[in-house]
Amino acid sequence: MKFIKEHLMFMLPLMAMLIGIEFILIFNRVTTSYEKKLKNEYAILVVSKRQLTTPMLRAINEKIDSVEPMDRESIAKEVTAGMQDSAMVAIMKDLPYFFRVHLTSYLSLDELKEIKQQLSSVDGILNVEIFGENYHAKHTMFKLVKMILNVFIVMLFVVSLLLVIKQMEVWQLAHKERMAIMEIFGAPMMLRSGILFKIAFIDAIIATLLNVFIFIYIKNSWASRTDITFIKENQDLLLNFSDFLILFVTALVIVAVSVFTVAIRSSEVPEG
Amino acid sequence: MASVITAQNLTLAYEKGKNIIINDATFTIEQGEFVFITGPSGSGKSTLLKSFYGQIKPYKGTLNVGGFDMKKIKKAQLLQLRRNLGIVFQDYKLINEWTVEKNVVLPLIITGYSLDVQKVQAEKLLSHVKLADQAHKYPLELSGGEQQRVGVARALSKNPFMILADEPTGNLDEFSSGVVWDLLENACDQLNATVLVVTHKIPTIFNIPYRHFIIENGGVHEVH
């Protein structure tokens, strides 16, 4: 019972840290995907007296990806609906050109404002509409949630690391005599701490595997059944193969940090 | 003969000089000598021995052991020095979770010798200390005398240039004491190791020449 308790005392905080890391990885992927989606659906509206081309606007700002002309006739038809054909001709004569300007990546509001300013100064451009507020409202909310999550995960990480080190101290105490004898005979720290590494390494493997199983279950079972649209839409982003490696390496680093912290502190210091 | 220990006005103290144990001692010990250090309980015999393997640093004066200045010695150098010493303790200091065989070759494990070398050396040493049939037992399955013989075998396992023994026969019966003294005598006589033994009483029958230091009131005096 004591054996299981001691290992759980080490594994649970370690798992909490790994879950935190996995959440950060997932949220980063979701953010990237969301920004890509925003970018694809978004376009700046430009009204111009003359024709505009992609190379022309890219020369002004290289974050501009492409320029898509809007159908003037359909606009004129909408405006002249129920009127005579001559009205349509007259309007077509005076109607400016409309363009959708697509961007290379997701840009901040300041960058959009800068592009607006640059485009507005181009000869012949009558109006530029960036729809900035709509574009950023959702994204700002998203960033806020991400920041809160990161702060929470950092705090969780610190507390969990302290718990892991505490448990390592318990194990170090149990093997204190052996480590002291080895030190008297000249064993370096790595060799003296070998027993702690051995115990912690096995627990690190178990904790990583348990974490991966939890996220495999969430991805393949729970996410398919949930009513939360956001999770359903991002189901593919929940767990990647590379996550397993990242979690395992993180677990090993945590183990190394905790063992070294305890081993250095417990090392016999000559008096004098 | 080369000096293995040189102490010049050596002062050893605990609590940053508040509690002086050895005061202003000057002596030299040469390679291959057998040295007894005696003195009343609490006189500082064990503290002096501890200073030779860097468990306590000199408070004043200088102490040179195996070419290392023990006042300025760095951690890595201290471990290197210890790997070339054999140390025997009154309370044996064996690793109870390890077999007798593994305990004996601890210095070889630390130095990174192969398993084959470890096995050959363990067999040789255990037969030497008359414990060949106990190799796979654990220390707590042995008597005190047997445990101490394991301790001596461990101290000899890497042919150290110096053996430090703190009351090695303090808890032993006559037979085990005899075996331990024979082993230490042989180490000095045949392997040319320097042997320093802290003890309450020098054995009545001793077959090789030795030097004798007495510690009294913080001073270290040689008896001629």
Compact description:
Chain A is α+β, with helices and mostly antiparallel strands and 272 residues long.
Sheet of most strands of chain A: 4 strands, antiparallel
User: How far is the first residue's CA from the last residue's CA of chain A?
Assistant: 44 Å
On the 0-100 scale, what is the average pLDDT of chain A? 86
- Give the quaternary arrangement of the chains: heterodimer
Based on helices, strands and strand pairing, what is the structural class of chain B? Answer: alpha/beta
Q: What is the CATH C-level name of the largest domain in chain B?
A: Alpha Beta
Helical residues, percent of chain B: 25-40%
Order of helices and strands of chain B: EEEHEEHEHHHHEHEEE
CATH topology of the largest domain in chain B: Rossmann fold
The count of DSSP E runs of length 2 or more, i.e. the number of strands of chain A, is 4
CATH superfamily of the largest domain in chain B: P-loop containing nucleotide triphosphate hydrolases
Which regions of chain B have little confidence, pLDDT < 50, spanning 5+ residues? none
How many structural domains of chain B?
2
Explained architecture:
The complex is a heterodimer of chains A (272) and B (224). Chain A is an alpha+beta fold and 272 residues long. Chain A has two domains: 166 residues, no CATH class; 88 residues, Alpha-Beta Plaits (2-Layer Sandwich). Helices cover 71% and strands 8% of the residues of chain A. In chain A, strands 2-3-1-4 form a four-stranded antiparallel sheet. The two termini of chain A are 44 Å apart. With 224 residues, chain B is of the alpha/beta class. Chain B folds into two domains: 126 residues, P-loop containing nucleotide triphosphate hydrolases (Rossmann fold, 3-Layer(aba) Sandwich), CATH 3.40.50; 73 residues, no CATH class. In chain B, 33% of the residues lie in helices and 28% in strands. Chain B contains seven helices and ten strands. In chain B, the strands form two sheets. Chain B has a six-stranded mixed sheet, sandwiched between helices. A four-stranded antiparallel sheet of chain B has the order 2-1-4-5, covered by helices on one side. In chain B, a hairpin with a 4-residue loop joins strand 1 and strand 2. In chain B, helix 5 crosses helix 6 and helix 6 runs parallel beside helix 7. The longest helix of chain B is centred in the C-terminal third of the chain and has 18 residues. Chain B is globular and about 50 Å long. The model of chain B has no long low-confidence stretch (mean pLDDT 92). Chains A and B meet through helix 7 of A and helix 2 and helix 4 of B.
